Structure prediction request, 420 residues.
Amino acid sequence: MKIAISSTGGKPESPMDARFGRAGYFQIFDTDTEEYEAIDNTTGRDAMQGAGVQAGELIAGTGVSILITGHCGPNAYRVLSGAGVKVMLCSSGTVENAVEKFMKGDLKEAAGPDVNGHWG
Amino acid sequence: MRIAVASGKGGTGKTTVAVNLAVSAVRVGLRTAYVDCDVEEPNGHIYLKPEKGLSLPVAVEVPEIDESLCTVCGECGKICEFKAIAVLGDRVMVFPELCHGCGGCFLVCPVDAMKRSSRLVGRVETGVSKIATCGGDRAAPDGDGEISVVQGILRVKEAMPLPVIREVKKHIPGGDIVIIDCPPGNSCPMVESVRGADRVILVTEPTPFGLNDLEIALETVREMGIPVDIIMNRCDPGAGLPEGAFGDVGSEVIARIPESREIAEINSRGGLASLEFPELAGTMDRILEKILRSAREARR
Prediction:
């Protein structure tokens, strides 16, 4: 199973990014190999609009089944749920901490978008 | 001739200047139109009280995906600059509220799976405002005293005023003078409203905020290559900023409208100040004369 985590940096010890669409990076953790892979999200972060859609598409393309992020707006949620990606909410700590919490079952799944859509 | 009334800062008196300038124009017998491009909050009609004419919907063309035809090739997603289309492994998703209506996705779809649908973004309304020209200090030679009014209204929840502004501009009637009331700010809606004008009037007030935003507005309009006149509104005699505070723009200040409780009171009940307050009528007449003269000189 692969898990995506929104992150401010490119390392497992980087702090998480509470934002989804405009996160600096996404890290993909593979539970089988226990390895991390960082994906740069500069295009999404600097997008004029539609950052959530863009990031959702990016995440859907990685084949992950779980996303851990701080907040998820309506457009991003629509893309992610359309691609069958479950959204788990966690907004602080490092990327590694977030994976640990998820593995222990400490994170809650978002039943829908938890914030309103916004422009910019 | 098209005159755009803009400001940078909000609340400086664009609409007050625009409607009262329209009154001056119609009273000297010019065929006059007032066009409200401030589509987020058009309020010139409060003063001009036009008899309503047409009310036309403004729609933007947005894509709708026919999933039975779509092969998920991803071409539509690649051409969309606005992320209104997400291409997932097995399907394409459309977000019409993000669409700017460029139409690229219709063109690139190899199997015609993108269907043209539309989204209502606002309305354009036309009307005629009758202005009493008799009883004033002069009568319109043609005696009709009518201002053609066109305004755009952006639908609440819509984020993009440009399609409505463009549609408003398509409905500008013919005539001698067209006064375009622009939205505040200096970004796309203001630029689109100003574009095509022969002259721009920037209305400002003698406050640090007014000056700061005036400078940005000036830079914007000069970049567009349109001649500018500046009106300083609410100039309290004996107060305000020191002489010379306007720096190199001083020469473009064509009028100063005094701070006046009378004007404020007339405005706050939706009256046309230049019909009730002769001092303002005089100022507006002089502004109109100066602009017409500058326009004639520019043509030579």
Observations:
- Strands of chain A lie at 2-7, 25-30, 35-40, 66-69, 86-89, 108-109.
- Chain A has one domain: 2-109.
- Chain A touches chain B through 17 residues (CB under 8 Å).
- Residues 2-109 of chain A form a domain with the Nucleotidyltransferase; domain 5 fold (CATH 3.30.420.130).
